[in-house]
UniProtKB/TrEMBL annotation:
SMART domains: IG, IGv. It comes from Asarcornis scutulata. The lineage of its organism: Eukaryota, Metazoa, Chordata, Craniata, Vertebrata. The gene is Alcam. It comes from the Eukaryota. This is CD166 antigen. It is found in: Cell membrane; Cell projection, Axon; Cell projection, Dendrite.
Amino acid sequence: PLALGLYTVNAIYGDTITMPCRLEVPDGLMFGKWKYEMPNGSPVFIAFRSSTKKNVQYDDVPDYKNRLNLSENYTLSIRNARISDEKRFVCMLVTEDDVSEEPTIVKVFKQPSQPEILHQADFLETEKLKMLGECIARDSYPEGNITWYKNGRVLQPVEEVVVINLQKTVDKSTGLFTMTSSLQYMPTKEDANAKFACSVTYLGPSGQKTIQSDPVVFNVHYPTEKVTIRVLSQSSTIKEGDNVTLECSGNGNPPPQEFLFYIPGETEGIRSSDTYVMADVRRNATGEYKCSLIDKSMMDTTTITVHYLDLQLTPSGEVTKQIGEALPVSCTISSSRNATVLWIKDNTRMQTSPSFSSLQYQDAGNYICETTLQEVEGLKKRKTLKLIVEGKPQIKMTKKTNTNKMSKTIVCHVEGFPKPAVQWTVTGSGSIINKAKETKYVNGKFSSKIVIAPEENVTLTCTAENQLERTVTSLNVSAISIPEYDEPEDRNDDNSEKVNDQAKLIVGIVVGLLLVALVAGVVYWLYVKKSKTASKHVDKDLGNIEENKKLEENNH
């Protein structure tokens, strides 16, 4: 490379400078020398090499002490290049008749350190010109230039908005430059996440180069321009009993820490942090809520609806009524939205609402009126009616001769609630019959049944008694020899009598005949004691047909 037509050597600061002597070695060479020229043009000799004695001598020049090396081909090397080595050096070859000289220009380059942004502002403020920071690039040669960037774009000076001031200092001992560029900047709200950086552009041996700093993001303060109120709730809807939190926020940076909350029915705002909590809200909390900054500016509004559900069941609890009475039942709903109503009786869903113009025993049970707001999670109410239908005992007696012709079934059909206790007796003697079988008590009804084989006509009494009343009914039953079917019963009862245990029935008949013979022998005595004898016959008949118990069990 040439500088002003002269040969130039480019060297990196700290490296070795190598300068070949660009003269052809002449015949008769006596010695070669290197010198450099002072700024005023006067020479300073630094190295000498004899061609005959091959010895090398270095002049006592402090700047080059122990740094020089002159080779046999008269190439001069200077170790640890310095800025002060940037001179015009001259190679001289001397013969007896002539002195040849060839100059070389040395240029030294030093890459600066990576620039860094120091003295950074803690934060920037809109509408205020403030020192953002200083970009510093150290130890450069030649001096470099600093450029500022925002989001990768060059920042150009703008009066009162972008103010850049560049300063350059040189280290007198090394000759290296340090560049410092300060940036004053007035940000906008959009600069909140902007990346600021700087670069240094410098000249190297191969041309111009650039080194970038690491980017920096600054906290930009800007005032609140809008406030927002919102409801914090675990559910999308609010119901009575919920806790409700109102949150107010401002879009400034830093955000406001205190606000005024305006509650329905309150004329003055309530000063609070950014949240306001209402516990166990009631329906009267429904309304318009507002919040504003402390100075009452920039207000926002929201509406809260507190959903509710009331259920009134009339009557409710435990209710006791008499059979045949009327009972109006009403389930009244009051709610913030349309509610669904469901009736349940004894764990079974009812298709219609209950209505009782004449109560029957089957109407008794546990009734539940349940209502739900479908759109509001967890809002459900229910109330219970326990209906008791009472009635005095009602009795109907029936009789029939069983298909085997050897016994008769007498049935006492009973209605009433509470369940009546039933007792069978023989009219006249008052003897109690304890062999009765009862059917299941359902809807206030059941039956008590006895099986007998009377040898003579007999009158049986069925007594049913509960807490309300005692009812007595009697029925005349003919002797076993006279068939009776005055009240046909369920065919299942007939079929049950077809289960045979003939041996015991025959024994019963034989015993009956023997008793008849005995009666014939003592006719007068029987006439006097007729009722007792009849009782005795019935009791023995009941004892003789014990098998009927098993028959009934098999049937049921």
